[in-house]
Amino acid sequence: AGMKFFLQYVGFFFAFFSAAFLIISTWTDCWMVNADDSLEVSTKCRGLWWECVTNVFDGIQTCDEYDSIYAEHSVKLVLTRAMMITADLLSGFGFLFLVLGLDCVKFLPDEPLIKLRICLVSGVMLLLAGLPGITGSVWYAVDVYVERSSLLFHNVFLGIQYKFGWSCWLGMAGSLGCFLSGSLLTCCMYLFRETSSGRFHSAYSLRKGYSSAATVVTNVHLPPSQTATSKMYAVDTRV
Q: Which is a Gene Ontology cellular component entry for this protein (predicted)?
């Protein structure tokens, strides 16, 4: 039981921070940052939804939102948005399911098998969340790196060159955390299924045995005439 609680809390810890990292990564503005910090008087960051410029000297930040979501955007931007939003939803619901499945939470306290299955469902959702999250963040980072490398290879200088920023790194970290927490909740928690099932059936059999014994004891103390009378009364009542 102690190991089961430990795995639940470790999975809860990683699931919480992973979901938070993915959500922060999706809605922050530094997926791309200018690589020539020494030559610039401002830091330029591009996110999935807007672009921000921060003055190095006074720290004033100005942001410009992209065009409408229905406008024409690059395939990289549109697919990364879709994958990160999917990862946010799956990781968020996976975390909520995990909270309900924790043994310390008073939700279905007499149903250990159901709570264990809730933890397993949470683990599957976290594993699924890690897949679009890592795909979107790594693909975005690789695309930025390839674009910058090709410009340098052809000696093309456009004034501003970008490298992937901390928002992209945060998306990768959150995705890896989802994989770790999902693995703990599915593979490791599965080992406790038979133990919980055995305890559940043992408790059910014990309660059933007590109930049968009480019935037998009650019938033993009743005289035969009263037992027959009770049966006749029961038949008449049903009719």
A: plasma membrane
The answer to whether the CB of 108 falls within 8 A of the CB of 115 is yes
CA atoms of 91 and 129, how far apart (whole Å)? 5
CA distance 191 to 201: 17
Q: By residue range, what is the domain housing residue 81? A: 1-28+75-196
Q: Look up residue 104 and give its DSSP letter.
A: T
Model-level pTM? 0.72
Q: Is residue 61 part of a domain?
A: no
- Report yes or no on 221 lying in a domain: no
List helix spans (H) across 154-223.
166-183, 189-190, 193-221
pLDDT digits (tens, 9 = 90+) for 58-115: 778 888 877 665 556 778 888 899 999 999 999 999 999 999 888 778 877 777 788 8
Packed helices 112-153 and 193-221: angle between N→C axes, nearest 10 degrees:
170
Q: Per DSSP, what are the bridge partners of residue 46?
A: 32, 51
Residue 228 in domain: no
Report the domain count for the chain: 1
- What is the H or E stretch that residue 46 is in? strand 42-46
CA Rg, the chain, in Å? 30
